[in-house]
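$ fold --in a.seq
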Amino acid sequence: MLKKIKEIWRKTDDIVLRYPMILVMALIAAISAVVSIEMDNEANQFSVIKLIITGCLGISLMFAIKMLSQRIGKGFLMEFFGTLFLVGFYFLLPEKEKDFTEVYAFLLIPTFILSHLLVSFIAFFGEKRELNFWQYNKNLFINLFLTAVFTGALVGGVALAILAVDKLFDINFDYKIYPKTISFLAILGSCFIFLLFNEKGLHQLEKDKNYPQILKFFTQFVLIPLLIIYAVILYFYAFKILINWELPRGWVSYLILAYSVVGILALLLVHPLKEEGTKSWVKIFSKIFYYTLIPLIVLLFVAIFTRILEYGYTEPRYFVLLIALWLTTVVLYFVFIKNPTIKFIPMSLFAFGLFSLVFPYFNTFSVAKRSQKNELEKVLNENKLLQNGKIDFSKRVSSKVVDEVSDKIAFLTIRKEKEFVNQFLDEKAQRKIAKNEIYNRKYEINGDVRSLFTNIDHTLKHQEFERLELVAENNFSAVSDYQYVAKLRDLRTGKLVLNGNTFTLNDQLYDNNKVFKLSMNSKETIDLFPQILKILGENRNGRIDVPEIAVKGDLGNYHFKIIFENLVREKVNSEKENIYFNDGFVLIREK
């Protein structure tokens, strides 16, 4: 037993000394996660969340640097520049949570993908170790899977142990102990376990080991047969398009991308087996896969440009087009290059991804904003909506035009193109969207712009559309029965604190599982959404003035009354339903 403990301690000591910066990044992220849970909606919580994001990015970045340093040396210098990059990345993120819009998702997700791609090839850049490159990534893949299994067991076991102690000995732990423990172990624990599996790093990972039989079985008998069936389905759909001579549906792009990416992964998994006695369908698939992609890529480009030509570029459409271009490059490379290397796949994807984020003028953010500006001007001019340079909201237009104008103004407003947007809006319209612009509420801005149109012709619509807006005609409310008044926006952003109690509002009204829940200290909760549905009632269309729009409820020792300025419900084809409101205030009294 003592020998085992010494061995575990020796391995732990070796991991700490070998991978200090990776563990530091994991520790920063893990501690920040615990602190964030403890802060629970405090004003400066977002600064800690930024540390979590930066720390998690640092784990993969520092691992990539470590692999490269084990090949060429100069580890300290590279870790120094890696740290500078992470510090700059932290300050690149916004200071306030309200400024953390969807735009940052299009920055963060590609950046995390790029950091993991870097891990896959950085130690083999310029090297001719094809089999070593494959072994290295295969071992990383297996170690990642084992890490997930071990971490799941560790986190689940510790959480159950805490629960057992809590219930059996009546200790009554604070409920936050569970998310804190899970977050800490999931980040730092998983990182440490992964490093344990990798032991000495690059030179061990690239060693020639036996091909795992389970991986061979999965690839040959499950993954590749499924891909063949999937390819047949896509080809039948392509023939249907040709026969009916119709444009492809938008979601076919994602199906083709899924088939392409998973197919490439399958080829990478069976790469060393191509010359061995594998199943005949594996050999056939390996030879024809890239040729099968050619007509599907043509279909992919048709589907992408159908959307782009109609609505312009957005960040998601840009990335889909970029991946289509990358797939085309990969296909051409493997079809025409005599002795291709599989390293080309992650290296080329990294190059395309880096281009999309940092290349001036042609990066995703510049292209999307420039395109939507042009599309907005095009819609306004084609429908003759401009009068003396300003949008004439009284002009009769179709709901489709209203949708396009509202979407594009909201899109550009969230992306800080206020000056460009305001040139088309009069002072009344600018004031209308100003308060939601401050808080970067895209859907509310969209609704504000829609509400400015007073002459929507639903007979010109391309789809069934219903819009009901309830407006409070009385701007005054009696407060004599209440002790406190607060802004509704403070309740929505978690800034409402009364007598040491933090009140928050979870208002997710744009999905199928709509909620409007008021919470106190993240423990007691009341759902007020049924009252909102009752207020909206069976009315279908139009603008209706009502004396007051309010919901009420009791929470702990407090009685609440939330009063709205307006309440809007929009339905498309009687299926997709959005509910939103501009602003309001909260009345509170102690019971």
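$ fold --in b.seq
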Amino acid sequence: MCGICGFVGKGDTGDLARMNAALVHRGPDAEGLWCDEKRGIFLGHRRLSIIDLEGGSQPMWSADGRLCVVFNGEIYNHLDLRDELQKKGHIFQTDHSDTEVLLYGYREWGPDLPAKLNGMWAFAIYDRDRGKLFLSRDRFGKKPLYYTFQDRTFVFSSELTALARHRSISPHISELSLKKYFAYGFIPAPFSLYEHVYKLPGGFNLVLDLSTMDYSTIRYWDFVLEPFDRLPSNPEQEWGEEIRALLLKAVKRRLMSDVPLGVFLSGGIDSSSVAACAAQIAGSDRVKTFSIGFEEASFDESRHSRQVASMLGTEHYLETLSLKRARALLPEIARRLDEPMGDSSLLPTFLLCRETRKHVTVALGGDGGDELFAGYDPFRALRLASLYERLVPKPLHEGIRMMVARLPVSHRNMSFDFKVKRTLRGLSYPRRLWNPVWLGPLSPGELTQLFKEPIELEEVFSEAIEQWEACRQEDMVDKTLQFYTKLYLQDDILMKVDRASMMNSLEARAPYLDIELVDFLRRIPGRYKFRNGVSKYILKKALEPLLPRRTLYRPKKGFGVPIGQWLKDGYFEFGFEKGPAGLDAGFFRRKLEEHRKGLEDHRLGLWNYWLLNFFRHR
């Protein structure tokens, strides 16, 4: 796991050094810089040593000096690819570096290389003979990759902060990105916080022609739901066995390491299944597990994580996130965050990674399970929402929302009033907007107030609409799966885990996103993922031989934070000077007053505003 950066065009080694220095937390073990000042090509790398500690230094060159790579990530099938490439006549210089596989893999397969890879990555290959720079990001976007073309210079980096260190970059906040930030709670790819700076989306390559400086982005993979044409006679048994086998295989791949590793363990289904597989493969006495608890009971799952750890026999570590600790950590997190994101679970994730890093360098987690198996609460709301839409006339919606708004505000985790109010908020809009409006910090009406202009729904929610329409299935569960897997997973969950882990120089791995497992799961119909009111139905059936029923079938709690109560109690200071890009700062002043009086629950909008404000003035 590392950080990469580079540019083609204007600039010098000073620009490259400043960019690379901004990535030191991503790779504290080594630094590598290379440049050809005559051609204006500069590549930088920060290394966190995981595989081939002695031989994996970067930038790495092919033996003939024709190809050079800077790489962030892990390729889990690199040994198989190495064998295949050696049989084709390629001669390797390192003992078992996955980085070198990219060099000779690119030589053999060219732009088809990413389709061969099983892993997580963001890399750039300089092809000296063809005069091209080839960039790629893994299928789900687990590893970040930003790029821009300004002042006749192409610049790329793992983080916005590093990108902005180049002299040619003028970081101006994008108003459209701000609208998307408050609409979703994150900024979806290909947008970034800054104008003319983009994220390369997951599943895409970028090719830059060094002679013309023209570049193009090309999709090499997409998440497509294609249910099996025929069902087996016993889906629960047959699919369950296949899921279990593929998950074990995925975990085994991710136990590959030359450094100590462990498992994040919340006590929920996804992380518990990863821990169970790791214990089965490596032996429970060799597995360390890590979890976070809360003082507020409705948010705390530490009892469940301890139960699972005790059952598996792992060496378990538990830390508690108190209000005092959260207030001490927040300024550091916000100061080091290179792009604002409104997921408050960034707080416990950061603490989890910090404590885990004291014991290991790599940690496996359960990310992807909720998205691939319909594990979120909105899946439960779909049937009732459809009935409400069909039976309740539109003119009555506003009156019903006003009545429900009188329900007392509770700041307990996923409280009844929170879920009902959120659900009704979305039902005044077309179905293709239900998911983002349910999820988002601000409603479209609130966005209009904040920006003092009408909001173009098709523009602000373009990504959600695209995924809704791209789903070939008519089933609402499948369309919601598409939204969460393509948008929320990449631009919220994976971004959160990447930033929290890399701020602490920890590598995080996600077995549920193994491409062999995903290719099987996308063929299972949505009605077997959410079935008769049971979320993750087929996964729970698959895991019954591995985990007890009390773990598999207890109510989902989620990795929430009592941010609503903390905001109500006035524990965070707010600045209400004129906001960026025409934001009405008075809008949030009014929201905070209503929240503190207990009249409304504005936790999500207020949290997003607080983080953005801190980010701008750090």
